[in-house]
Specification:
Largest interface: A-B, 26 and 21 residues
Largest sheet of chain B: 2 strands, antiparallel
Bound molecules: adenosine-5'-triphosphate, magnesium ion
Mean pLDDT of chain A: 88
Strand order of the largest sheet of chain A: 6-7-8-3-9-10
CATH topology of chain B: MetI-like fold
Strand content of chain B: under 5%
Helix content of chain A: 10-25%
Distance between the termini of chain A: 40 Å
Order of helices and strands of chain B: HEEHHHHHHHHHHHH
Number of strands of chain A: 20
Order of helices and strands of chain A: EEEHEEEHHHEHEHEEHHEEEEEEEEEE
Radius of gyration of chain A: 25 Å
Distance between the termini of chain B: 41 Å
Number of domains of chain B: 1
Structural class of chain B: mainly alpha
Largest sheet of chain A: 6 strands, mixed
Structural class of chain A: alpha+beta
CATH superfamily of chain B: MetI-like
Low-confidence stretches of chain B: none
Shape of chain A: elongated
Oligomer: heterodimer
Chain lengths: ~375, ~300
């Protein structure tokens, strides 16, 4: 068991003029499951590979269990890694793959056998021990890669998008298995993904990354409820959050949208009247107003519906804020009947509004 | 829409492949048939009288100690050429695989020798090792070593092996490099995390994964050493020194017995034996290529 401390870590790849990782701090507790989430190219793998020792750290420190490991070889860090393409040794059978590291450690044969068979039993691989990787399905290969990590009994698991090569159904299933396994073993884990559902369901804590920076670190719910920036708000949640241009009213108790509609909010306390902001509201926090109230007031907006996606349980409504070009997405219960072309009045759930600084994109909630 | 190109005329396709077939017939099939025919005949040196002697040439061949000597040195020669050129090529490819900056420059330089004709390669090495004018011979002389491959059979052998191996390194290098680059980096990284040292990674992961390439090259190199080294031998040692010739490998012996010794029947019998060897090697290679995946 181990803690992982990432302190002011930066990375500039040889030959590149810019930093790929621009200073990340994060303390991961013993047994914690940290998920790094972000768009392609934001540096997730780079950060993970620095923890693994596969990539040099340009500056800053990474410590595992309090010991700085910057200069340690991967094998001396007591970590195990599961790669996106599984990286199974194609010329060895499942048993050979899982026992490779143990044989190098020169563990007694009986001990190796015990560990391999135990891991195989947990992962339901017992029947495939003597098959070559090419004779396994994608899901089985993925489990072998997990098994190879487990048998080493490392203090940290590193996962680099381990499920991205699986089909949707298998991915859901393996996601649950990984979570169960990690809870059972209690091993500190760092997990890279760009799938937000995977991130939300697996994580004890999430690190949302963008362009080599950790935009926000927090529990999935914190990140969902109080996104630190427009980027995080837009990245977490599906369908994505609506962003509307707005301006704080003179009394500071509401924001005025483009069409002149005012929405009351408590968040603007510290803001000067007249300040331009970005107003964020999640599609699921919009509901049809009772009996289509005539004039929108306080927490209601009128929208012109132009497209419907009926998903059964929910209906996703694409619309424009009445009289403007600002688009608004709403997720309504499937029971509501909506048709394209109609005008709809939507209620914004109280307290659901998010305000962001128009210039920097940072959340303004902290200011209130 | 038809994806394959089709010919409307029936004769055009035949016309198009005719040159290739003609060349094959004229320069490969016809001489081969002649060789087989001649191997059953005995001819006087002036080509005036020819007698059909059945397997007499073969019987004489396999009763000839010089022929066994030639087989022996051919085996030594091919084995060492193959090992040396493949070993060095693998080493260079492993190094080149790691180079990031200026990689194409290195690769071009390493590939260049392949463009050189065998005779030229032979002459190049000849100049370096020539006992009276060669630079290497001079340096060896300075070190007190009496270098003279015109006299010492082992030295002559060593020299043709060096020249022949050097010439083939580029070819092997290309294939090994391609083989190495086809191995996913993550496999090596996984092995590193599993605690394998670089040497161990090489022998337990990289080398086994290269085995298809290695096997293919093994056959190609043996064929090369058996047959394509004629030019080098001819330029550097002409099969000598001494008798039986210290570097008189099978393919050179065909030439020296036939065209120098004018024993056309015996020489033809030797060609036929060589032909059988090359056919066997080719069969092995084709068989193997059919089921490419090895591990
Ligand atoms: N070895 C390298 N040399 C130079 N640049 C690199 C190297 N590896 C990655 N990069 C660059 O660093 C940036 C971050 O790459 P990284 O692989 O960490 O992204 P990622 O967040 O894992 O993306 P993905 O979700 O696509 O896997 C990218 O712009 C990439 O091109
Ligand atoms: Mg990645």
């Amino acid at each position: 068991m181990a803690t992982v401390d990432i302190r002011g870590v930066r990375k500039t790849y040889a030959g590149l003029a810019f930093e790929t990782i621009k200073g990340i701090d994060c303390a991961i507790a013993d047994g914690e499951f940290l998920v790094m989430l972000g768009p392609s190219g934001c540096g997730k793998s780079t950060l993970l590979r620095m923890v693994a020792g596969l990539e040099r750290i340009t500056s800053g420190d990474i410590a595992i269990d309090g010991r700085v490991v910057n200069e340690l070889e991967p094998k001396d860090r007591n970590i195990a890694m599961v790669f996106q393409n599984y990286a199974l040794y194609p010329h060895m059978n499942v048993y050979g793959n899982m026992s490779y590291g143990l044989r190098i450690q020169k563990l007694p044969k009986a001990e190796i056998d015990r560990r391999v068979r135990e891991a195989a039993a947990i992962l339901e691989l017992s029947d495939f021990l003597f098959r070559k990787p090419r004779a396994l399905s994608g899901g089985q290969r993925q489990r072998v890669a997990m098994g190879r990590a487990i048998v080493r009994e490392p203090s940290v698991f590193l996962f680099d998008e381990p499920l991205s090569n699986l089909d949707a159904k298998l991915r859901t299933q393996m996601r649950v298995e990984i979570k169960r396994l990690q809870q059972r073993l209690g091993t500190t884990s760092l997990y890279v993904t760009h799938d937000q559902v995977e991130a939300m369901t697996l994580a004890d804590r999430l690190m949302v990354m963008k362009d080599g920076i950790a935009e926000q670190i927090g529990t999935p719910l914190e990140v969902y409820r109080n996104p630190a920036s427009v980027f995080v708000a837009g990245f977490i949640g599906s369908p994505a959050m609506n962003f509307l241009p707005g301006r704080v009213t003179a009394d500071g108790g509401a924001v005025e949208l483009t069409g002149g509609v005012r929405l009351a909010t408590q968040l603007t306390g510290g803001l000067a009247g007249g300040e331009d902001v970005t107003v964020g509201v999640r599609p699921e926090h919009l509901a049809p107003a009772a009996n289509g109230a005539a004039a929108p007031s306080g927490n209601e907006v009128q929208v012109a519906v132009d497209l419907i996606e009926a998903l059964g349980a929910d209906t996703v409504v694409h619309s424009r804020l009445d009289g403007t070009e600002d688009r608004l997405l709403a997720r309504l219960p499937g029971s509501v009947t909506v048709t394209p072309g109609m005008t709809l009045t939507l209620t914004v759930e109280p307290g659901a509004l998010q305000l962001f600084d128009k210039a920097t994109g940072r959340s303004l909630s902290a200011r209130s | 829409m038809q994806k394959r190109v089709t010919f409307n005329s029936r004769t055009l396709p035949y016309l198009l492949v005719a040159p290739q077939i003609l060349i094959t017939l004229l320069f490969f099939i016809w001489p081969a048939i002649q060789a087989v025919g001649q191997s059953f005949q005995r001819e006087d040196p002036f080509g005036l009288r020819t007698a059909f002697v059945w397997f007499d040439n073969y019987i004489r061949l396999f009763g000839d100690p010089f022929y066994y000597h030639s087989i022996q040195i051919t085996l030594v020669f091919s084995l060492l050429v193959t090992l040396l050129s493949m070993g060095v090529a693998l080493f260079l490819a492993t190094m080149a695989d790691r180079v990031i900056r200026g990689a194409t420059g290195y690769k071009t330089l390493l590939i260049a020798p392949y463009a050189i004709a065998p005779v030229i390669a032979g002459v190049l090495w000849l100049f370096m090792f020539q006992p009276t004018i060669g630079i290497v011979a001079y340096m060896l002389d300075q070190l007190g070593y009496d270098w003279n491959y015109h006299v010492h059979g082992n030295e002559a052998m060593m020299l043709v092996i060096l020249a022949a191996a050097w010439k083939q390194i580029s070819y092997n290098f290309l294939f090994f490099l391609a083989g190495l680059q086809a191995i996913p980096k993550s496999l090596i990284e996984a092995a590193a995390i599993d605690g394998a040292s670089p040497t161990r990674r090489f022998w337990t992961i990289i080398f086994p994964l290269l085995s298809p390439t290695t096997f293919f090259l093994l056959v190609v190199n043996i064929v090369y050493a058996f047959f394509d080294t004629f030019g080098i031998i001819d330029a550097v040692t002409s099969g000598g020194p001494g008798s039986p010739g210290a570097t008189n490998i099978l393919v050179y012996k065909v030439y020296s017995d036939g065209f120098v010794g004018l024993d056309l029947g015996g020489s033809s019998a030797q060609s036929v034996v060589l032909m059988i060897i090359v056919i066997a090697l080719t069969v092995v290679q084709f068989r193997y290529i059919e089921r490419r995946v090895h591990y």
